[in-house]
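Design review, sub-item: ligand-bound model
Attendees: FS, YL, KQ
YL presented the inputs for the zinc ion complex:
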Amino acid sequence: MKSIEPNRPISVQEQALLRAALERAPRAPEASALLSTVGSLQVVGQCECGCGSISFASVAPHQHPLIVADAIAESAHGSVGIIVRAVLSHIVELELYALSAEPSEGWPTPGSVRPWEAGHAAQPTLQADGPASGGPAA
Ligand SMILES: [Zn+2]
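KQ shared the predicted structure:
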């Protein structure tokens, strides 16, 4: 993560994605309580690779973060994994990572956010590796 100077408020699109992940793919009981903090988060770090991952100001940034949401969503460039980490009652990181071969330069659509387990099972096959199961190739 590259530090952002000065810090900036979380953007509207970042808020929407973070809320969708916390609402639809919670991983800890704290997730629902954290929803009310989303709008006031300050972005202090941003990944330079273009993935969109950001970190937030926190009173306790160096304690062990807890994963509070684990989701999958779709961008124009393919599937994107989303992990939200928190320390105590503070969201500290929104991590985005590409699941397809292409870099995830497109911002995921909040409406496509779903729990990791559901999304992974339903993920369409991106690349055919051979005959489909259930019969020989035509
Ligand atoms: Zn990155």
